[in-house]
Amino acid sequence: MSTNILICGVGGQGTVLAAKVLSQAAITQGKHVLSAETIGMAQRGGSVVSHVRIGDDVFSPLITKGQADIIIAFEAAEAVRNIEYLKKDGTVIVNRKCVQPTTASLTGKAFSFETMIDYLKTVSGQVIDVDTDKICRELGSVKIVNMLLLGAACKSGVIKKDDLKAAIKLLVKPDFYELNIKAVDYF
Fold first, then answer.
1. 52, 92 in Cβ contact below 8 A?
2. Rounded to an integer, what distance in angstroms lies between the CA atom of residue 49 and that of residue 51?
3. What is the C-alpha separation between 148 and 105, in angstroms, rounded?
4. What is the largest CA-CA distance in the chain?
5. How crowded is the C-beta side of 102, counted as CA atoms within 13 Å?
6. How many C-beta atoms surround the C-beta of residue 14 within 10 A?
7. DSSP letter string over the chain?
8. What region, left, alpha or beta, does residue 72 occupy, with left being phi > 0 and alpha being psi -120 to 50 degrees?
């Protein structure tokens, strides 16, 4: 049996590090992991997608459409853009923050978070929305959004917090370790 997790966002949000931490946490559990990133124009705020596949029956790093158990979306529009990867009754963990694309700003047509959440609720088993702006203010840093979303993903039972913390210790600079642990422990 495998677990498929799709992580999506826009460039600069920390999606690639989140995928590495998630993969390392699964390895800590003794599980086989394959992952791949599609980063494209990420440096310019473009879409970033990471596939993380966990299990002994995993032979390809890419998740097939309709097979993701969880989508962790750093931005609501990216959750909607990638929803076709989610399996029936899958879980979407989504940041409440919307990053308006330049084209929307130029035309005066802004995205509505509530509209996107309503849509996600109709096509997924569960939607967990996380107000990362609020939590980041409470914890004193905007650089922990990725760990906040991974902490929320621990609710699914796919990854254990202790394994996530061990992975953070291996992959995150020591100066930022405690802050990232606070982010994971928030949930």
1. no
2. 7
3. 28
4. 50
5. 3
6. 20
7. --EEEEEEEETTSSHHHHHHHHHHHHHHTT--EEEEEE-TTGGGT-EEEEEEEESTT---SSPPTT-EEEEEESSHHHHHHTGGGEEEEEEEEEES-----HHHHHHT----HHHHHHHHHHHSSEEEEE-HHHHHHHHT-STTHHHHHHHHHGGGTSS-HHHHHHHHHHHS-HHHHHHHHHHHHT-
8. beta
Residue located via tokens 């509209």: 115
Angle between helices 145-153 and 174-185 (to 10 degrees): 40
Q: 156-176 pLDDT, tens per residue?
A: 887 889 999 999 999 999 999
Q: What is the pTM of this model?
A: 0.92
Q: Return the structure tokens found at 23.
A: 């993969």
Are 172 and 30 in contact by the 8 Å Cβ rule? The answer is no
Could you read off the pLDDT of 66-97 as tens digits, one per residue?
999 999 999 999 999 999 999 999 999 999 98
